[in-house]
Protein 1
Amino acid sequence: MRRWQVRFQIYKPMASMPAPSEIVEEVQSGLSYRLDGARRKDANCQLCYTLSGEGAFRHCSETYRLLPGTMFITRNNDPKNSYYFPQACRQPWIFIWFSFWGEASGRMIDDIVEGYGHVFSVPRELAAIRKIVSYQKYSNSVRVLSPLAGAKLVVDSLNDIVEYLDNRHAASPQGEMIKNIQEYVMKNIERDISVCKMSSELGISREHLSRTFKAHLGIPLHDYVTMEKMKLACQLLLETRMPCKEISGKVGYGNTIGFNRAFKSLLNMTPSELRLSGFMPDFNIDSR
C-alpha cells in the first residue's frame, strides 16, 4: 500500500537526459507482494531504500536481506531480479522508492551495478536519502520540472550514493592497499618494478596483492605497471626532445629493445610514431 507519492512531469523532456518518474513511500506485509523483473513491462530504473521492517531482493540465485538502511538499485524489467516481502518476516516492510527513466538512466544504473553490485547499505542521514524523503511535503502532487532540473535530481542522488560508497571503500584495508600500490608505482617508476619485489617491499603476499588489485581495478597489476610506465614515456616523447634511449631508462627499461616492444604492444605504434602524431593516447583503465 502506498503511504504517499509524488509524481514528476518533465516539461519538454530531452532524450539524452535522465528523468525522474515517481517517489513513493510504501508499506507491505503480505506474502503475495512480489515484483519479478521478468514480468514487468516498464523499462524504468529504480532505487529502493528500507526505512523499517525487512524485505528481500533476489538476483539470479542470490537472496539479500533488505534491512533498515539497505538499498537496492535495478532496472525494473531485469529478468534476473525480483523483490518481495519475505515469509519469515513479522513486521511490515516500510520502504521508499525513486523511479526514473531514459537511456542515460539505464546506463548509469548498469555502471553502478557493475562497480558496486545491486544491494548496499547507506545511512539514513545521507543527503540523497534525506532529499528523497523530503518530498513527502509534496505528498500526492505532481511536480513539474525542466529537463535539467529533473536530470539534476537523478544524477545528484546517484552521485551522492556512489561518493559515499567510494569513500567507504577508500577507508577500508583493501582501499588503503590499492592506494599504497599506486603510490609505490609512482615513486619507483624509474625502476624495473616486479610484482615479487613490490610484494616484498610492501609486506604483502604476491598472491593477495595481485588478486586484490585486479578485483578492485579490473586490470592485472603487471599490466597496470606497464601502462603507468608508458604513460610517462608518452609525456616525455611529446613534451621533451629527449631521445628514446634516455626515455627508456627513465621508465625502468635497461635497453630500448624491451622498451620499444612493450610500447608497441600496448599502443600499436612505435615511440617515434607517437612523437610524430603529437597526440596523447587515452590511458583510462575502462577504455582498454
Note: Residues 282 and 288 are 9 Å apart (CA to CA).
Protein 2
Amino acid sequence: MIARRNMYSKDIELRHLRYFVAVAEELHFSRAAEKLQIAQPPLSQQIRQLEHMLGVRLFERNYHTVTLTAAGEVFLAEARHVLDEMEQALARMQDAKQGLVGRLNIGYFQSAEVTDAIIPAILQLYRQRFPTVEIQLRATNLQEQWQAIQAQEIQLGFAACSSDLPKDLDMLVIERIPLVVVCAPEHPLASQPAIALRSLINEAFIFCHRQASHFFYDRIVQLCGFSPHITQEVADLRMLLGLVAANMGISIVPASAVSMRDQGVIYRPLANLHEADIIETLLVWRRADSSPLVQNFLTATREVLEQRNKSVASIRE
C-alpha cells in the first residue's frame, strides 16, 4: 500500500484559500489581483507560498496562460467548501450574537394554574420574533427551578414566589392574582358576596398535594391562621375543582382558576383582601445573564405585559 502524504500545514490561512480560488476562477493573475483589490506581486507570492506549504503545484504557468493542475482541480473544490463552511459559520455566529438561533430552556412552576394565563401569550410573541430558537419547557418546583437557573441548566423560570429569592437571581412580576374561595353552588358559602377566612375554620378543604405545590399549600395554611381540615388531596387543580363541584369540600385557589372551570362551581373573593392574599407570577433569571436569548425573551415579556395593561386600562375606561 502506498502511504498517503499528509499535506496539511497549520500555516495555511483563509487568505491563502481566497487568493487561490480567485486565481483559479479567473485563470489570470492580474484579473484575480484586481478582483481581490491587491497588487499582483503579493498575490503571486502568496500562491507560491501556498504551493510550497502543500508540497504540490496548483497551477501551470507560462507567459500566455494559467491552468490548474490535476491537484489544483481537486484543491479548488475543497477550498471552496472550506470558504463556504466558514462563511456559514460566521453567519451562524452573527445570528447567535443577536439571539436569532440557539436553545432557550425555561422552567415553569408545577402549580400550572398560576401561570397558564400568561405563558402562552409570551411564548407566542417570542416564537413570532425568533422562529429558529428552540424552546424547551421544564416543569419544576420553586427550589429546583432556582437551583437549575443558578447552575445554568435553564436560563429562565416562571415562578409564583418572590420570598427568599437568591441574590444572584433577578425577577420581573408579570401577574398579580388574588386568591378566592371556590365552592359548589349549593354550598352555604355561595350565597355570600365575600368570605372571611375565619369563617372557614370548620369547613372541609380540598388541596393539591403539598409535594406538587408546597409553596402554595404553605401560603394558604399561613393565610388561614389555622390548620385547615383537609379531607382530600389531589394531584392537580382540575381534579380539585371537580371535587368541589361535587360538593365534597371547598378550597382556596388563584382567581385565574376560573379559566379552567366556571361550570358547577362558585368563586367568591376574600373579605378585606390584603397584599398577602395575592399570588405573584414571576419571571426569574440569573442577574449576570446578558445573553441575547434571555434579553430578547425579557423584551417580549415586557411587551406582552404592556399590551395587557393597555387592554385592562381601556376596559376600565
Note: The longest strand covers residues 169-183.
Protein 3
Amino acid sequence: MTHKIWVFAEQVNGVLDRVALELLTKAKDLADKLEGNTEIAAVLLGKNVKGLCDTLADYGAEVIYVGDSAELDLYNPMLYAPVITNLVKDEDPDIFLFGATAIGSELGPTVAAQLKTGVAAHCVELRINENGLLVASVPSFGGKILGEILVPDNRPQMASVKPGIFVQGEKETREPSIHWLDVTDLKAEGLPLKALRIDKKEPKGVPLEKAEIVFCGGYGIGSKENWAKLETLAARVGGAAACTRPVMDEGWSPGEHVMVGTSGKSIRPKVYIGFGISGATHHICGMKDSGLVINVNRDEHCPVFEVSDIGIVEDLNKVLDQLLMTIQ
C-alpha cells in the first residue's frame, strides 16, 4: 500500500514561503512512521513557477503537481480552491499540509469544506499514532493544555502549521516527477472576488525571525511607553522587539508582525529576553527553540521561569531603565 502526503507549496511573486520547505521536511519524518511506501508530493500553483520545482524536490518532494497560468498569478481562493479540490478527488492523498499563513489559513479550510473533511489549524506538532493516523497537537483553553485532533473517517487528513514551528531540513538533490495540471479553462473574469495587486510594506529594522537577540514584552509591561523602551533596546544591539498577543490587543505594539506564538511567529534567536510574560503555552510554542532564555517578572512563581535559563525576580521597570542606561 502506498500512502500519500501532500504539501501546499505556497509562493508569492515566484518566491516560496519557507513554511513549504519546513512542511516537506516534516512530511519526510511522518513518512518514516507509516507502514509501507509513502509518496511525498507538493502542489504548486501560480504563473511561471516551474523554476521552483527543483527547490521543492531538494527538500523532499518526489512528485510535484503544477498548475501554471496567468490566472493564478495572484492568489484568489475562488480559483485556487477548485483546482486543488478536484486534484485531491482524483489522487486521494492521505495527508495534506498547509502553512498557517494568510493564504494557507483561508485556502486550507476552504478546500477541507469542499471535500467534507476536517482540518486542524495552527498545529504545534504532528505525529503518526499506532493506527497510522495523523495526530495534530493544538494549544487549547488559552494555551493551558495541548489538544490532540484526529480525522479518523475522512480523507485527506488536513492540518496547518505556522512558519517556524518545524525546522527546514538539509537539501538532497533529487529528480522529481512533475505532473502538469490542465488549468486552461480557468477564468477570473466574472468572479465576485478579484485579486488586483500585492502591496507589500517592509517592516523597519531587523526582521523578527532573523534577529539573534529578541526583547519580548508581555501584558506585564503595562504600557506603550514600556514597549517603546523594548524597541530602543533592540535597536541599540541590532536585535528585534517582540510581544505576546495581549500586548498587540492593547495596541501597545505596532501589529501582528511582531507577535510571537501559535497565532504569531515562531522564532529561534540566540538570546531571548522576556519582560512581564506569564508563560502561556500559546507564546512558549513560538520561542521554545531559542538559545539563552532570560525572563524578568516580579512573581517568583510565574510559570515562565520553568522554561527560562535565567530568571530575574524584579520590577521590570527597574530592569528596563537600568538596561537603557547601560546599553547606549
Note: The chain has a mean pLDDT of 91.
